[in-house]
Automatic annotation (TrEMBL), chain A:
Principal location: endoplasmic reticulum
Family membership noted in the UniProt record: Belongs to the very long-chain fatty acids dehydratase HACD family.
Residues annotated as transmembrane: 32-55, 76-99, 159-184, 204-224
Its membrane topology: Multi-pass membrane protein
Entry GO terms, CC: endoplasmic reticulum membrane
Protein name as it appears in the record: Very-long-chain (3R)-3-hydroxyacyl-CoA dehydratase
Coiled-coil zones: none
Record GO terms (molecular function): very-long-chain (3R)-3-hydroxyacyl-CoA dehydratase activity
From TrEMBL, chain B:
Keyword hit for Glycosyltransferase: no
Composition skew (Low complexity), residue ranges: 11-22
TECR-like N-terminal domain residues: 73-98
Keywords in alphabetical order: Endoplasmic reticulum, Membrane, Oxidoreductase, Transmembrane, Transmembrane helix
Membrane-spanning segments: 103-125, 184-202, 214-233, 254-276, 282-300
Protein name: Very-long-chain enoyl-CoA reductase
Pfam families named in the record: Steroid_dh (PF02544), TECR_N (PF21696)
One term under GO cellular component: endoplasmic reticulum
Presence of the UniProt keyword Transmembrane helix in the record: yes
Organism: Sinocyclocheilus anshuiensis
Main localization, broad class: endoplasmic reticulum
Chain segments carrying region Disordered: 1-34
Listed GO biological process terms: very long-chain fatty acid biosynthetic process
Gene giving rise to this polypeptide: LOC107694603
């Protein structure tokens, strides 16, 4: 899903100058700054690649191919974030982060990469754009937070852009999975049938449908969580300015 | 006069923190008093507050020996603790927390075990709408499928009977949402396994009768072992009590594993399911075994830790679930 990482609840904590939590050590902080800078740069490369390809071709069609490699590289690189939580240098839940990163990686590899026929769909552009803008803001947000120098604009963008980007990304993802269905059924991609030695079967087509259905309970929860975070983080600052 | 604020967990029957400080069962304290009981009668003043809102729910100005459930220093105390023996003065403040809707352990166990028993049988008898219509109410041509059904059914019947007649539970109830969680797990996995084992296209084990015979031996051995441990644990505890003692090997050889393991019931349970996996050579069964093993390891490690904390002389050779390994 194109949801920004659930680490927001914890970074919101470090936004308010409440130093109750011990942050990562100096070495870990340096590493994380480098990581977040590299990721910001990576997604900027994808953004620039999209714009240049659009200007060169003059149409929205088939822009996926122009950024296919950096997209795969940097989206897959996000798997490191699970490690960061597991090791403890980032105070987010391993399960939540894992879930979100895996869903992105799933879309990238198990749907878009695996089913060649959907790569020219416009829905792919829809979620790629949503992801790109989201990630550029998110990774720069983390970078500035780590350096204790967070411009209000970035914080505002992080907690406001999602209002449009999240539904946009979800729409792109769902349409892409839906477009992949007939090809998966026809070719039996990633599916195992009976009989076999280990008495197991798996129907990827049905699995994809279940994935689509799972968006129904999950998307509202994540979306409204971000809404609540927004009130807490941005609303909080407004209160302070009123007090002064 | 000392006044200590104490966190309390609400007694099961009351709702919303409205607890009458009715004296508990008239039996005396189950814990041994720290000092000799004084001749003078001590009365307590008790103020009961809601844990979240801190509203005063009631105030009791003359309380004798009562048996509430509350906690000391943030940790909840047990039903058996007696007010008189806790380090408070003659005034105490209780906080009660509503535990939410509860359900008895027995009910949960019976429901979560009855499900797999019945569900598996539905697949075994190939009830309509599961497999293709031409297979409705047919039986498998492989004898291992009949054997697997007998083993699976025996396992869950054993669990149901143990729930009714063997186990002595420490807690009466658990949160209501657990029944939905647990039943989804047990019933879901049972359906998934049963679907493949009883499928018309089921493939019997690669090494045939040899493999099945070994698997059955392992399965039966571990079923008897698991039962022996349950009996041994039951005998540690007098009826109606909640005492905790270190389990030791008994005359029954199946309990000698207590020398090496804290929770041999889980060890034997793992063994049973490994046997069943080998018998059916079915990947979903292997998954179920793995997931169960992970959960039981978590429980065993927790239990092992509480044993070490509670008993100074706990045997050092013992591992939580797998001898010397885990």
């Amino acid at each position: 899903m194109s949801a920004p990482a659930m680490g927001t609840s914890k970074t919101a904590h470090s936004d308010s100058s409440n130093k109750k939590k011990k942050g990562p050590g100096t070495l870990a902080t340096a590493y994380l700054v480098i990581y977040n800078v590299v990721m910001t740069a990576g997604w900027l490369v994808i953004a620039v690649g999209l714009v240049r390809a659009y200007l060169a071709r003059g149409s929205y069609h088939g822009l996926y191919y122009s950024i296919e490699k950096p997209l795969k590289f940097f989206q897959t690189g996000a798997l490191l974030e699970i490690l960061h939580c597991a090791v403890g240098i980032v105070p987010s839940s391993v399960v939540l982060t894992g879930f979100q990163v895996m869903s992105r990686v799933f879309l990238t590899w198990a749907v878009t990469h695996s089913v060649r026929e959907v790569q020219s769909e416009d829905s792919v552009l829809l979620f790629v754009v949503a992801w790109t803008v989201t990630e550029i803001i998110r990774y720069s947000f983390y970078t500035f937070s780590l350096l204790n120098h967070l411009p209000y604009l970035i914080k505002w963008a992080r907690y406001t852009f999602f209002i449009v980007l999240y539904p946009m990304g979800v729409a792109g993802e769902l349409l892409t999975i839906y477009a992949a269905l007939p090809y998966v059924q026809k070719t039996g991609l990633y599916s195992i049938t009976l009989p076999n030695k280990y008495n197991f079967s798996f129907d990827y087509h049905t699995f994809l449908i279940l994935v689509m259905v799972s968006y129904i309970p999950l998307f509202p929860q994540l979306y409204f969580h971000m809404m609540r975070q927004r009130k807490k983080v941005l609303g909080h600052v407004e209160e302070y300015s009123k007090v002064e | 006069m000392d006044t200590l604020a104490l966190e309390a967990t609400q007694p099961k029957k009351a709702q919303n923190g409205a607890v009458a400080a009715a004296p508990g069962p008239p039996t005396p304290a189950k814990r041994k008093p720290a000092k000799k009981t004084k001749k003078a009668v001590v009365f307590f003043e008790v103020e009961i507050l809601d844990a979240k809102t801190k509203d005063k729910l009631c105030f009791l100005d003359k309380v004798g020996k009562i048996l509430p459930s509350f906690s000391l220093h943030g940790k909840s105390l047990k039903d058996e603790d007696v007010l008189q023996h806790l380090p408070v003065g003659t005034t105490a403040t209780f906080y009660f927390r509503d535990l939410g809707a509860q359900i008895s352990w027995v009910t949960v166990f019976l429901t979560e075990y009855a499900g797999p028993l019945l569900i598996y049988l539905m697949f075994y008898f190939r009830v309509p709408f599961i497999y293709a219509p031409k297979y409705d109410f047919t039986t498998s041509k492989h004898w291992v499928v009949h054997l697997a059904c007998m083993c699976h059914s025996f396992h869950y019947v054993k669990r149901l009977l143990e729930t009714l007649f063997v186990h002595r539970f420490s807690h009466g109830t658990m949160p209501l949402r657990n029944i939905f969680k647990n039943c989804t797990y047990y019933w879901g996995f049972a359906a998934w396994m049963a679907y493949y084992i009883n499928h018309p296209l089921y493939t019997p084990p690669t090494y045939g009768e040899q493999q099945i015979r070994l698997a059955l031996t392992v399965f039966l051995f571990c079923q008897i072992g698991n039962f022996s441990i349950h009996i041994a644990l039951r005998n540690l505890r007098p009826p109606g009590s909640k005492t905790r003692k270190i389990p030791y090997p008994t005359k029954n050889p199946f309990t000698w594993i207590f020398l090496l393991v804290s929770c041999p019931n889980y060890t034997y349970e793992l063994g049973s399911w490994l046997g069943f996996t080998l018998m059916t050579q079915c990947l979903p069964v292997a998954f179920f075994t793995l997931v169960g093993f992970i959960q039981m390891t978590v429980w065993a490690k927790g239990k092992h830790r509480s044993y070490l904390k509670e008993f100074r002389d706990y045997p050092t050779l013992r591992s939580p679930i797998l001898p010397f390994i885990l």
